[in-house]
Design goal:
The chain has four helices and eight strands, in the order βββαββαββαβα. The protein folds into two domains: 6-62; 65-132, Alpha-Beta Plaits (2-Layer Sandwich). The radius of gyration is 22 Å and the shape is elongated. It has helices at 43-55, 78-88, 112-119, 136-164; strands at 6-10, 27-31, 35-40, 60-62, 65-71, 93-96, 104-109, 128-132. The strands form two sheets. The protein has a four-stranded antiparallel beta sheet with strand order 2-3-1-4, covered by helices on one side. The model is unreliable at 153-165 (pLDDT under 50).
Length: 165
């Protein structure tokens, strides 16, 4: 995983900007259900705090947000895709690729704000569009719902056949 300006700290909800190890840093702190997100403006600050967290036995990891993009025109390189994306928005891109068909690829950013900005980008020219990747958990949830639905449907059919006999 690449270094990112966002760090997720698992099982910690009592982190605050007044903590001595965060003093003097510009950080946005968001408490989630199972942990805390620390978002820094500066990549070096993020690296420093990540090292501190790991050295003090916090369960921390860098956060990445991935999107799939498609373009109308063929592009020559991933750099061309990055330039096209930055023409509409100015996210901090930590990874980008261009697939062999030269019209789509993956872009990874390190802040939720950048992810949401790209995802909701309404490109009036129609040159590029973004879609969110489905995670393994999304597919597992969909499979469970389908399985429950299919089981329910089969049982309903069984009941109907029994009552019609």
């Amino acid at each position: 995983m690449s270094v990112s300006r966002t760090i997720y700290v698992k099982d910690e909800s009592d982190i605050s900007a007044s903590d001595k190890w965060l003093k003097g840093l510009t950080v946005k702190i968001t408490n989630g259900t199972y942990g805390t997100y620390l978002e820094f403006d500066d990549l070096d600050d993020s690296k420093t705090i990540y090292t501190y967290l790991k050295d003090h036995d916090y369960k921390a990891k860098y956060v990445e947000y991935a999107l799939f993009y498609t373009t109308i025109d063929e592009l020559e390189s991933a750099q061309d895709a990055e330039e096209l994306i930055k023409g509409f928005s100015n996210p901090h891109i930590i990874y980008i690729n261009l697939r062999a068909n030269k019209k789509c690829g993956k872009v990874v950013v390190d802040r939720l704000e950048d992810f949401q900005g790209l995802k909701s980008l309404d490109d009036e020219t129609g040159l590029i569009s973004f879609k969110r990747f489905k995670t393994k958990n999304d597919f597992k949830k969909m499979s469970k719902k389908r399985s429950k639905h299919n089981n329910k449907s089969h049982h309903e059919d069984d009941d109907e056949s029994e009552t019609s006999v």
